[in-house]
Specification:
Helix content: under 10%
Strand content: 25-35%
Mean pLDDT: 77
Low-confidence stretches: 135-165
Radius of gyration: 15 Å
Largest sheet: 5 strands, antiparallel
Number of strands: 13
Order of helices and strands: EEEEEEEEEHEEEE
């Protein structure tokens, strides 16, 4: 997780409407540090677009409150890639490539709506020519939290945010 990343509530969310309701977007403004009394390790501070600013768990106490929102540059298109779920040609925004299934790609919308096997690892491509980014997505019941150098994993119980190396 990095400062400036855009996030939405995740599977472990238990904070009511601090984000002004499901679907609202916030920006990571601070990363937790070991020994910090206000922003401990494995937490982040999010500034929600509606004005609220507070801490959320990204692995703290084994919980993940956030999902990474599409942070691709504006206008990014993957011209020769077709989403294997919705069949859109030229995926726009982030592209998610399954590391288990041969030549299987999802657009951001299909990925966020769990349109593929949740146990499969994914690579994230931010541009048509970028190298894949990996991180650990939460498992069923959990939601967010990136671990450097780990494959993006999803499951019915967890869907954690992946961290960018």
């Amino acid at each position: 997780m990095q400062v400036g990343m855009r996030v939405v509530r995740g599977v472990d969310w238990k904070w009511g409407n601090q984000d002004s309701g499901e679907g609202n977007i916030g920006t990571v403004v601070e990363i937790g540090r070991q020994g910090s009394p206000t922003t401990p390790d494995k937490t982040v501070v999010v500034q929600w677009d509606q004005g609220t600013r507070t801490n959320y768990r990204t692995g703290f106490q084994g919980a993940y409150d956030l999902l990474l929102y599409d942070n691709a540059q504006i206008g990014v298109r993957h011209p020769n890639i077709i989403c294997d779920c919705c069949k859109k040609h030229g995926i726009r925004g982030m592209r998610w490539k399954c590391k288990i299934c041969f030549d299987y790609d999802l657009c951001m919308l299909c990925y966020m709506n769990n349109k593929h096997d949740l146990a499969h690892a994914f690579e994230r491509y931010e541009t048509a020519h970028s190298r894949p980014r990996t991180g650990l997505l939460s498992t069923p019941g959990t939601d967010s939290g990136l671990i450097l150098g780990r494959p993006v994993l999803r499951s019915v119980l967890v869907h954690r945010v992946c961290e960018i190396p």
